[in-house]
Amino acid sequence: MNWRNLWIPFALAGLLFLSFRAFGGWGFSLVASGIVFWLLQHTSRLLLSLQRAADQPMGTVPNAVMFHAQLHNGLRLLQVLSLAGSLGRLASPQGQQPEVFVWRDEAGDQVQCNFQEGRLTDWVWSRHPEEEDKVAGA
User: Fold this and answer.
1) Which of 123, 107, 125 is nearest to 115 (CA)?
2) What is the Cα–Cα distance from 91 to 111, expressed in whole angstroms?
């Protein structure tokens, strides 16, 4: 079980409890409205980035090299989707960890990203095979 996902609800419940103890119903309602506002902002950001990514062809990026240069360990899947501007093609079996997504550009270069529990752990940029043959033959 991923304990990292549980600390936020427990912290919010503790904050609600402490606000009720300190300020009564007024404190509880103020903190509750702040939590609801935060959840709405988070949901809005999530839906907006997914909507932008859904408008693009699946698994494509404008430039694989530039996309590869922007990646670093620990990025969340949503952040990678925002960087890519499109949904990646799932290259691993559904629901199996690590999840592997692939993005390609028009030249055929590709970036393969591995995600463990929703966080980027490894990524590989590979050149299109025909370009490698041209470079080696030149």
Assistant:
1) 123
2) 12
Residue type, 63: N
Q: Considering only CA atoms, which of 81, 83, 80, 103 is closest in space to residue 91?
A: 103
| pLDDT single digits (tens) 45-103 | 999 988 888 888 898 999 999 999 999 999 999 999 999 989 999 999 998 889 999 99
**CA 81/CA 36 separation, integer angstroms:** 25
Walk me through the domains of the chain, giving residue ranges and CATH numbers. Answer: 3-52 (no CATH), 57-137 (3.30.1450.10)
104, 129 Cβ separation under 8 angstroms: no
Is 49:85 a contact under the CB 8 Å cutoff? Answer: no
Greatest Cα-to-Cα distance within the chain, rounded to the nearest angstrom = 77
Q: Is 39 helix (H, G, I), strand (E, B) or coil?
A: helix
pTM to 2 decimals?
A: 0.75
User: What is the residue whose two structure tokens read 């670093």?
Assistant: 72
